[in-house]
Amino acid sequence: MEIVRIFADCLYAVRYDSEEADEFERLFDQWQDIEYLENFFENNKQDLQHGFYGTFSIEEAVKATREEARRLQQDFRRMARKTATEQNRGLDTLFKPLDNNQYRLIELMKSKAKGNRNRSWLRIYAIKVDANLYVVTGGAIKLTATMKERTHTQKELQKIDRCREYMRMQGLIDERTFKELEIWETMKTESIKDKLNKLAVGAPSKWLEKAEWSEANEAWLNKSADIALKVLRALREKGMTQKDLAEKLDVSPQQVSKIVKGKENLTLETISRLEDVLGTKLIATL
Predict the structure, then answer these.
(1) Strand runs (DSSP E) across 84-182, as ranges?
(2) Average pLDDT of the chain, as a whole number
């Protein structure tokens, strides 16, 4: 694994071996990917409809997740525009201890950030190295009361532990474990930041570039996402695969894959052909 700088010498993320994107970038990609979200909520339908957060339809859950991720990304983008000094520990307002009963600062503390919706199910998991200094290890859509109840959230716990061990091996902790924090905090902070920056030598994160693009193209992306969700639900209802749809449209499976992710700038011709093949309305007309 390697450490990647996200912004302002305050937020970093892990990029795991064989992965192209760092975890921070990957999460926001997934949470805007309609195909991924529809499939996730379909596979976790029981938790979604009778679980910890009440009752949601799959369509409602996909739209709520995408909107919540957009708002959370905006929060991070506002911080990314500021220097570390200007932030005034702004990340500490977003990240809280992973254990809700943890009130004491401990070494490499497991932390989480949530979306801003009431009882949010979005989670970004990170390790708090110091005040306003975090390394993102992963994240999840958490539909249950505890992380141990489902395999995909258990994996996130394991990733946090792996990253904490990696950071210890890289010397990103003082052996005195913060006992003299008030005396040498400034010296320790600079030392840790220097070590993080030396580790963050790989390809930079593309998160900010993607976030700015998404915001600039928000209007048509919203429409594309709505169409993608309707297409996916129609396919599931009719028992059709994406390959079936590609054959009927006389396009490649790769083109259909782009459509159902909700990030394709569709032409009216393509929308009309989709409506004809699926027998359903995808956009409202006067």
Answers:
(1) 95-97, 109-114, 122-130, 133-141
(2) 86
* Together in a domain, 51 and 152: yes
**Cα 37 to Cα 170: distance, rounded to the nearest angstrom:** 36
Are residues 252 and 110 located together in one domain of the fold? no
How much is the pLDDT for 176? 43
Residues 244 and 130 grouped into a single domain: no
Quote the radius of gyration of the chain (alpha carbons, Å).
21
pLDDT at 182 over 80: no
First to last CA, the chain: 53
What CATH number did the domain enclosing 225 receive?
1.10.260
Question: 161 and 59 in one domain?
Answer: yes
How many structural domains is the chain composed of? Answer: 2
182 in the same domain as 95 = yes
Kindly report the pTM of this predicted structure.
0.86
Answer yes or no: do 93 and 146 share one domain. Answer: yes
Query: How high is the pLDDT of residue 184?
Result: 41
Q: Cα 277–283–286 angle (5° rounding)?
A: 120
> Is the Cα dihedral 249, 252, 258, 261 positive or negative?
positive
What does the alpha-carbon distance between residue 144 and residue 148 come to, in Å, rounded to a whole number? 9
Q: Count the helix, strand and coil residues of the chain and give each as a percent rounded to the nearest 5.
A: 55, 15, 30
Domain membership of residue 23 as a residue range:
2-210
pLDDT at 177 over 60: no
